[in-house]
Specification:
The chain is mostly helical. The chain has helices at about 1-10, 10-45, 50-75, 85-105, 110-125, 140-155, 175-195, 195-215, 220-225, 230-240, 250-270, 275-305, 315, and strands at about 105, 130, 135-140, 160.
Length: about 325
């Protein structure tokens, strides 16, 4: 009986989702922090220590400033007030985005470009939003959007070299470390984020498009087209960026469409010889989803205001 009442209560459902999302953010934040520390101390990350520090400082500053401005504009207290725990929970999304950018990209010694990429990522959450039934929401994954914009504006910026993840490890550890990341990401989504269907759909469709591309191009083997999905950077994309609970569908069927769409757009971009196609593919899919989210309510309003769209007595009987 209690379960039925809770299911029928939208407020309880939303509260449950918020709690689950916050738990997922805490686990994601902890895991990506540990990965950053281990990467710089042991694995062989080539970026300087200044890069994640500048990224975090920029992300925290932007997140706090934008929230303060928004809260003041509508006359409510900022969401980060209420104690140290509230501040930590509020900054978790910015923390995850900053460390993702810092470990995935190589900026050489240009720390101002690091700050730019992070500012774009955090700023997109406040500036690029669509209306929903109970407010507005952002539709671009911040980390991925910051990466895509930076790649477009700064051609000299690149992804971090793949060998940075395993420079200082050898033997079985070359395989064990990616497997640990894969298992940890899977468990996080199974228990907290509930986006496993999108991940499975993406992985299956990625294999399908890789086999297809390998068969179409005689100068590429299937192993070559599959290889991009085996690196740690790709796993971070698969488990931390593409299935972001805030910017990906929650319904299983829509998750599957979302994941398969990323692979499809990726394949099209690869046929067009676009570099860093995976990040641009997610950006394009998120943009299409955002447009659909913005247009769908307008279509429903048009239908509701059109007398010819109202069901007649005969159609109701049918």
């Amino acid at each position: 009986m209690n379960n039925q009442n809770q299911a029928a209560d939208p407020a309880a459902t939303l509260l449950g989702r918020d709690i689950s999302r916050q738990k997922a953010l805490r686990r994601f934040g902890t895991s990506i922090t540990l990965l950053t520390i281990v990467g710089h101390a042991y694995l062989g990350f080539e970026q300087s220590f200044a890069q994640p520090i500048v990224a975090l400082a920029t992300a925290y500053s932007m997140q706090l400033l934008l929230e303060w401005l928004h809260a003041r504009s509508i006359g409510r207290p900022p969401r980060f007030v209420g104690g140290f725990g509230n501040v930590v929970d509020f900054l978790l999304p910015a923390h995850i985005a900053a460390l993702s950018l810092a470990m995935l990209m190589y900026f050489n010694d240009r720390l101002w470009v690091v700050a730019f990429a992070v500012a774009v990522a955090i700023g997109s959450k406040s500036l690029l939003r669509v209306s929903t039934g109970n407010g507005t929401r952002h539709f671009f994954n911040p980390s991925n959007f910051g990466i895509a914009v930076t790649f477009l504006l700064f051609p000299s910026v690149a992804l971090a070299m793949p060998w940075q993840w395993t420079t200082e490890v050898s033997g079985a550890a070359d395989w064990e470390f990616p497997i640990i990341v894969f298992i940890a990401g899977t468990l996080l989504h199974l228990k907290y984020a509930s986006r496993i269907w999108g991940i499975v759909s993406f992985l299956i469709s990625f294999v399908v498009q890789a086999v297809f591309r390998g068969l179409v191009f005689e100068d590429q083997s299937v192993l070559t087209t599959l290889m991009p999905a085996t690196g740690v950077a790709a796993m971070i994309f698969v488990f931390y960026m593409a299935p972001d609970p805030a910017t990906s569908p929650s319904a299983p069927k829509r998750q599957m469409i979302f994941g398969a769409s990323i692979s499809l757009v990726y394949m099209i971009l690869m046929f067009m010889h676009v570099v860093f196609a995976l990040f641009f593919a997610l950006t394009i899919v998120c943009l299409i989803r955002g447009v659909c989210m913005a247009v769908t309510p307008l279509l429903h309003l048009d239908r509701a205001s059109d007398p010819s769209a109202s069901p007649t007595l005969d159609s109701a009987r049918n």
